[in-house]
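So, can you check what follows?
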Amino acid sequence: MANRRVLQSLIALALVLLAALPADAGRKKPRSAAQRASRPAPAPEPVYDPATEIALDGTVDEVKELTMLSRTDLRRIVLRTAEGPVLVQLGPSSFLKSQDFHCDHGDALTLVGSRVPSQGGSIVLARSVTKGDRTLVLRDAEGRPEWVKLLREARLAAGGN
């Protein structure tokens, strides 16, 4: 009997507390324009520009994996050239792996790519990269990524849109 009264009291207390909460207590309030403007915008992704295309020869000084929230992991390298170190973005690690293309510290590479502004500096978006007698094409002449074409073809082959 005492347990029943305790249980009823707890239920009554819970109902009183729930009734006291505002109707929108669990919802996120919309952010004002000023609040949205105060939050820094994400840095735009660099875009390939055929007008800034260059050719580089050098040695891989560093290999980097860049994890992005909206995309797959990207493979970047620092290429040591006669003019100094150059940051180069090759493409998604999964694409490079699917093409059985590897580059490691000390590898000699020749590449063609577009030097574009990126986060206070510049980056070269590689269009093709040659290691030894093997050339991997990463983008077409307009800079469209080959990995996007492969994904589209795979979806079409699977019957998707």
About this structure: The mean pLDDT is 82. The longest strand covers residues 53-66. The two ends are 65 Å apart (CA to CA).
